[in-house]
Amino acid sequence: MSSGGLELKLIQIDPEQIDDEKLLPAAEALRRGQLVAFPTETVYGLGADANDPAAVARIFAAKGRPPDNPLIVHLADPDQLGSVARQIPPLALRLLEAFAPGPLTLVLPRSSHVPDIVTAGLDTVAVRFPAHPVARRLLQLARVPVAAPSANRSGRPSPTRAWHVLEDLGDRIPFLIDGGPCEYGLESTVLDLSTGKPVILRPGSITAEDIASVAGLPVSAVLPDRSDGSAAPRAPGMKYRHYAPRARVQIFQPPQTDREREDLDNQIRALTGEGNRAGLFASRATLDGLKSACRLLDAGAKDLAALPPGSCAGFAYGLYPDPVAASRHLFDGLRLLDRLACDVIFAEGMPEEGVGTAYMNRLRKAAGQAAPVLFVCTGNTCRSPMAAALYNLLRKPSDAPGQSAGISAMPGDLASPGALAAMNQDYRISLAAHRARRLTDGLMDEAGRILTMTAGQKKALLAIRPDLASRIQTLGEAAGLPEADVPDPYGRSVWQYQATAAKLEQLIRSFLEKET
Ligand code: AMP
Ligand code: MG
């Protein structure tokens, strides 16, 4: 491929009609300790014989991966589980029956046969049974467990097509099997079953609800990493910047009104007017609604030349809100827009429900954003939307974004007239586009901090989600003023709303000061 590097053997395999003759050299290479990049239903993996520490070390070297970030062991058959896991809880078997082969990784107590380098020295091992026919056949032919992370340079978007792997590792690996685009496009759900209680360490296409329905008990997500990497990560690898294209990624909410569409157009024009290249990863409707000239890309496009300076390109993932389609195309879209040399990529947000939780998790990391601060009140029409808006006004752009939700909100309710007036008059903030949303498990799982307006609301949240106790506080507590409940101005005069806004401002300023 490239000068001084390894000669790469590219093997094309039709997943519908697998030719063993073509696959065998790659399987034999695995057995000899060489690296093989291969398609799975999630993303492309970079595999090595999990029993051979020297082979596994080549994965870390090729990717530039930090040694404390463990790998997932890929197996062809659940019968092999005993060779890597010391103990297999009954719940593991039930989940495997429901979801294997497929995009679910289980973290289990590790067997002593598994080399340290695979698990980064942890006492647990992550195991998965890929469903992709090419991955399955490769594992069967190789007859060894295959340790594999995603086949990208560390920190970059995961590869979902063969050319993504070539772009990152083309001159560093001897084998790449091209089996076409990946079905899910996001890495597997990682579920920790090594402690008494199942915990999702990385959200994926198999959702917390999917798992809970089989487990018969609620499944929570681990505390997201702090942006500074200070908190000891329960899921190793979470502390690193991930999935990042070269372009700066900016998340936007899909415009619903003419005013919001105009805002998006203005942001694009501000960029392109200065000679920057803008990219959009968005739904068809969002791209169709743009007034700015925007070149549309196809999912299969590659080998694109840079855009002319001052222009804009858009990648449509499908229809809003389809988190499955958005997930499938996210990394491809980010890489394509990078190929076009975009300076900024505007990427469309999605409701954090079902697969939307996993999509937003990756998108946020690609944008380098910390987990959001979620402000919670009852109806999500007064205090919490005011709090989120004030927080977003006062925070630094690098701080975690602010969001809001209500414990018993009526979804779609508008901000109350008093809140609109107070925010307009005192802060020049418009809450006109605000729509109430109800607090969900997904929103709480993805939030880094959950701040309620009153002690009563905090108590209510702790009762529903005791597992998230470390994230739930009243805003007063988070601000270092623990006695302060934020008074409810609902239905009162505008000056009551103004007093509430002033109180919120005071608490948020002191919260921001304490945090940074
Ligand atoms: P990658 O396939 O590149 O996304 O990397 C595998 C990921 O699996 C790691 O970053 C971890 O998040 C997770 N993982 C692997 N082994 C373990 C383990 N023993 N405990 C917890 N998480 C793990
Ligand atoms: Mg990865």
Tell me about this structure.
- By secondary structure, the chain is an alpha/beta fold.
- It has 3 domains: 9-221, Alpha-Beta Complex (DHBP synthase), CATH 3.90.870.10; 243-365, Rossmann fold, CATH 3.40.50.11030; 370-516, Rossmann fold (3-Layer(aba) Sandwich).
- Helices cover 34% and strands 16% of the residues.
- The chain contains 17 helices and 20 strands.
- The longest helix has 22 residues, at 494-515.
- The site of adenosine monophosphate has 19 residues, from strand 6 and strand 10.
Task: Describe this protein with a few key phrases.
516 residues; Rossmann fold; 11-stranded mixed beta sheet; 17 helices; 16% strand; globular; binds adenosine monophosphate
Which helices and strands occur, and which strands form pairs?
Layout: E1 9-12, H1 20-31, E2 36-38, E3 45-49, H2 53-63, E4 72-74, H3 90-99, E5 104-109, H4 116-119, E6 124-128, H5 133-142, E7 146-148, H6 162-169, E8 175-178, E9 189-192, E10 199-202, H7 208-215, E11 220-221, E12 248-252, H8 258-272, E13 278-282, H9 284-288, E14 295-297, E15 312-316, H10 323-339, E16 344-348, H11 355-366, E17 373-377, H12 383-394, E18 402-406, H13 417-427, H14 441-446, E19 449-452, H15 455-464, E20 472-474, H16 475-478, H17 494-515
Parallel strand pairs: 1-8, 2-8, 4-6, 5-9, 10-11, 12-16, 13-15, 13-16, 14-15, 17-18, 17-19, 19-20
Antiparallel strand pairs: 2-3, 3-7, 4-7, 5-6, 9-10
Helix pairs in contact: 1-5, 10-11, 12-17, 13-17
The protein binds adenosine monophosphate and magnesium ion.
